[in-house]
């Protein structure tokens, strides 16, 4: 029996010792990643450091970062992303609470229906809004759709499921016994929500909010399709500089800034999903 126990405990050790020798298996995916992502990104960074006259330096960066056009686009990008994130958190949390804790026929069907939105491209939401709120649409809301408010409403509609799904997963893991004990001690529904339910789900809500903001900051299809007046975000500015005016150095500078913003948000999102909570986005 002792020999068997030693053999069993030694087997994982041997497997762990064998793992370093298989590191070469990581080489192909690393090469593919470097070739299809790393190399183009390096080219973009190098292009951002080269002016139209061929001079290598930070002159293009200084011109772009000092321009009112860039500051306006960065402000509108952040403002729309923050507004969309706030709207998605409020609406997604409310819908998740209703589906999770208010029994009604068709709750599961409604949940699955919301999930289908995740498979849609964003421009379909913009197209649907055009038929509803466009100047020739059913509701005929006039210029509302082609304003920042119209873009904000479209983004909230499209990205709400990205908050709702992790919230549903978190609410589904809240202990019913905790809620029953709190109710038996006289806690009203609002207090149970604040002190029992939401503390259990805050990690999932925060990670869903970070993911929503990351996607909203890089949203291109809705803004382009609606064509809102005086609404130029960073992705739209990259498109305008690179495709319309063929100013590739400036387009690369804006693209690098957008990538830095995205990586910072993604890092926050990963720390939240790893940091704790019984229901994280990755579990959905």
Mean pLDDT: 79
Say which CATH homologous superfamily is assigned: MetI-like
Rounded radius of gyration (Å): 25 Å
Q: Assign the structural class, choosing from mainly alpha, mainly beta, alpha/beta, alpha+beta, or little secondary structure.
A: mainly alpha
Question: What is the CATH T-level topology?
Answer: MetI-like fold
Shape type: globular
Strand residue content:
under 5%
Q: Helix fraction?
A: over 70%
CATH classification, class level: Mainly Alpha
Number of individual domains:
1
Distance between the termini: 43 Å
Uncertain ranges: 1-18, 277-284
Biggest sheet record: none
Please tell me the CATH architecture by its name. Orthogonal Bundle
Q: SSE string, helix = H, strand = E?
A: HHHHHHHHHHHH
Count of DSSP helices? 12
Number of strands: 0
Offer a quick outline of the entry.
With 284 residues, the chain is mainly α. It has twelve helices and no strands.
